[in-house]
Amino acid sequence: MAGRMNHRFRNHGALLAVTVICLGVSAASGPGATAADRLSIVSAYLCLFLLGVALAIGPANAIRKGKALVNVYARRDTGIWAALNGLLHFFLANVLAMNYEYLGIYVENAPVPPSVPVREALYLWGTILGYVIAVLFIMLMGLSNDWMVRKVGLKWWKRLQRASYAAFIFTCAHAFMFQVLETRAAVWVVVVALVTVLIIAGQGLGIAAIRKLRDGKPRAVEPARG
Ligand code: HEM
Question: Cβ distance 129 to 175 under 8 Å?
Fold first, then answer.
């Protein structure tokens, strides 16, 4: 019990340190944009990367040990910090991007393609996805404790936790939409694409590893009839 608590303190300490360092450096430096702009984008990327790490822990274990994990503290703790960073970005992005100034610059009067109707659709759906992700994060954070595991039971807890896959896919789609709107440099588009592909491929490999081990196990022999 004490060992487990120490382990979790270390997890949260490390994740807190990573978050504070990244946000602190971004607030204090950076090109042109305001500190709020930088914090918004750095917290968004921290959220994406930590969510990716949380979702990669299961497949990595499945590939190494050939079995599915149900309730792992490292995965839960990383997920909590992904959600906290995501919600910080959610708050800042609402202040920075839900106003006429942002609409004017990036949606209605942008001097580069795509066209205004396409930009309007990207902004609308990107924002809707942002709100859906925030709701999923709040639900997932509420679930991320031992009391909730006992309350809802392991089977349902695991089912509800699968919302994290939807949160990840929605985050990637949302990121691409705002990258188009803000004509983000190609390197960042490639970063988001790489994270998306790696995590989806990791899930596929993890599922394949579990199936392989399960199919390799000797099955119970059917009793002879007749
Ligand atoms: C918890 C929910 C959200 C998550 C996880 C999330 C995630 C992300 C990610 C990963 C990016 C990086 C893409 C890039 O710009 O290169 C991004 C960018 C952006 N998001 Fe979100 N987002 C969320 C909610 C929202 C909401 C509600 C809005 C409001 C309109 C929004 C507005 C933006 C904007 C304007 C950008 C461009 C960069 C910036 O100024 O921060 N996001 N988001």
Answer: no
Omega within 30 of 0 (cis) for the link into 223 = no
Instruction: List all residues 6 or more positions away from 120 whose beta carbon is below 8 Å from its beta carbon.
Output: 107
**Other Cβ atoms closer than 10 A to 131:** 12
For ligand 1, the distance from its centroid to the CA atom of residue 4, given in whole angstroms, is 35
Residue 32, Cβ neighbours under 10 Å: how many? 6
**Is the pTM above the cut of 0.85?**
yes
Residue type, 169: I
> Tokens at residue 53, please?
């790490």
**CA nearest 200: which of 166, 175, 174?**
166
Nearest CA to ligand 1 atom 3: 130
Rg from Cα positions in the chain: 21
113 φ, ψ to 5°?
-65, 165
How do the domains of the chain map onto residue ranges?
2-213
- pLDDT tens profile 49-90: 999 999 999 999 888 887 777 668 999 999 999 999 999 999
Q: For atom 33 of ligand 1, which residue has the closest CA?
A: 93
CA of 77 to the centre of ligand 1 (A): 22
Res 212: pLDDT: 84
